[in-house]
């Protein structure tokens, strides 16, 4: 293995005068030839090009040609993302990853690995979490079954089948217009001597009476209404009473003919459940 011959320099005692003996100078000449050969072995290069430098290779104990990272051949490194045409970082400059917490970088050879935080907690929210748009417009929020799109003109397009609220109400402070295909859920009730009409299940309820019964209206919020469609069975003559409900003229009487249809609509004004009855649809 070639080594730098700094410790084996030859003397000049027998080489610095014309009267010196060549015989005595031969060991010094031989030493210098060996030293030159060692240097040649360590710097055995040819055909260098502009901006190349010498780099030491420990595997063969030689200096070899390499690229000058500060020269014009490699003046800058360009970082390119999906959303840009690239950013040049000159040699010696620092490239910083910004925009959030828990971002780490690691370098292995010529590979830079950038690791960001897990996004699971940002995409999946529990019932107590809040998704807040800090600034700007919401372009699209997507889940497994649908999404809401803002077209940039203030309009929202809802793709999917259901809009649900984890609270009691969805507040709308302006006109709500249904252009077409408006419908209400219909809940079928089972005839018995006591029937509970649960307004939280649907806004329209149907029942075919096979008993004389008492209707109890539950979970009807202030400002809410519920419709009850009552059909007599094939025998008829079944009666109906309503608890805590006020009708015009007092207690109503159902139609009692076989298969007769009556419609009762009940509105809660916060103090009373006020009802109307339309009878004997035919």
Description:
The strands form 6 sheets. A 6-stranded mixed β-sheet has the order 10-12-14-17-18-16, with no helix packed on it. A 3-stranded antiparallel β-sheet has the order 7-8-9, with no helix packed on it. A 3-stranded parallel β-sheet has the order 11-13-15, with no helix packed on it. The model has no long low-confidence stretch (mean pLDDT 80). The longest helix is centred in the N-terminal third of the chain and has 21 residues, at 22-42. The protein has 2 helices and 18 strands. With 282 residues, the chain is mostly beta strands. It has helices spanning 22-42, 120-123, and strands at 52-57, 62-67, 76-79, 87-90, 104-108, 111-115, 140-142, 147-150, 156-159, 186-188, 194-198, 204-209, 213-218, 225-232, 240-242, 246-247, 261-268, 273-281. Strand 3 (76-79) and strand 4 (87-90) form a beta hairpin. It is rod-shaped, with a radius of gyration of 46 Å. Among the domains are: 5-42, no CATH class; 77-115, no CATH class; 186-281, Jelly Rolls (Sandwich), CATH 2.60.120.
Task: Please supply descriptive tags for the structure shown above.
282 residues; mainly beta; Jelly Rolls; six-stranded mixed β-sheet; three-stranded antiparallel β-sheet; 2 helices; 18 strands
- CATH class descriptor of the domain at 186-281: Mainly Beta
Please identify the structural class as seen in this structure. Answer: mainly beta
| Mean model confidence by pLDDT | 80
Question: In CATH terms, what is the fold-level topology of the domain at 186-281?
Answer: Jelly Rolls
Number of helices: 2
Envelope shape: rod-shaped
CA-to-CA gap between the ends?
113 Å
Q: Write down the Rg.
A: 46 Å
Spatial order of the strands forming the largest sheet: 10-12-14-17-18-16
Poorly predicted regions: none
Helix content range: under 10%
Tell me how many strands there are: 18
CATH architecture descriptor of the domain at 186-281: Sandwich
Main sheet: strands, sense, barrel: 6 strands, mixed
Helix and strand string, N-terminal first? HEEEEEEHEEEEEEEEEEEE
What share of residues are in beta strands? 25-35%
């Amino acid at each position: 293995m070639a080594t730098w011959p700094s410790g084996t320099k030859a003397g000049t005692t027998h080489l610095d005068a014309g009267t010196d003996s060549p015989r005595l100078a031969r060991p010094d000449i031989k030493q210098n030839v060996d030293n030159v050969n060692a240097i040649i072995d360590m710097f055995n290069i040819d055909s260098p090009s502009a901006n190349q430098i010498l780099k030491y290779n420990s595997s063969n104990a030689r200096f070899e040609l390499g690229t000058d990272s500060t020269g014009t051949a490699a003046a800058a490194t360009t970082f390119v993302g999906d959303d840009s045409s690239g950013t040049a970082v000159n040699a010696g400059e620092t490239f910083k990853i910004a925009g959030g917490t828990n971002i780490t970088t690691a370098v292995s050879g010529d590979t830079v690995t950038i690791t960001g935080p897990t996004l699971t907690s940002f995409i999946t929210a529990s019932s107590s979490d809040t998704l807040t748009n800090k600034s700007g417009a919401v372009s699209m929020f997507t889940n497994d079954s649908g999404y809401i799109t803002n077209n940039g003109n203030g309009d929202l397009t809802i793709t999917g089948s259901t809009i649900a609220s984890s609270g009691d109400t969805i507040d709308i402070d302006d006109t709500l217009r249904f252009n077409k295909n408006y419908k209400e859920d219909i809940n079928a009730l089972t005839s018995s001597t006591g029937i509970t009409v649960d307004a939280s299940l649907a806004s329209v309820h149907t029942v075919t009476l096979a008993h004389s019964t008492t209707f109890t209206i539950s979970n009807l919020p202030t400002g809410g209404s519920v419709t009850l469609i009552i059909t007599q069975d094939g025998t008829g003559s079944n009666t109906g009473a309503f608890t805590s409900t006020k009708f015009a003229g007092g207690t109503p009487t159902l139609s009692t003919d076989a298969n007769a249809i009556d419609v009762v609509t009940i509105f809660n004004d916060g103090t009373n459940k006020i009802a109307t009855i339309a009878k004997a649809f035919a």
